[in-house]
Amino acid sequence: MAHSTISPGSATTTGAGNTKPSIAVNNPADISVIVIYFVVVLAVGIW
What we know:
The chain is mainly α. It has one domain. The protein contains 2 helices and no strands. The protein has helices spanning 2-14, 16-46. α1 runs antiparallel to α2.
């Protein structure tokens, strides 16, 4: 948790404009990881 807090902090120091795209990229990445994990679990369960 602390590492996640530090990364956005450093991104904020670089610029507010850069922070918004970073957040926009991170959220779909997190969602895609959850979706892929869910699909893998379903595939293993069916198999």
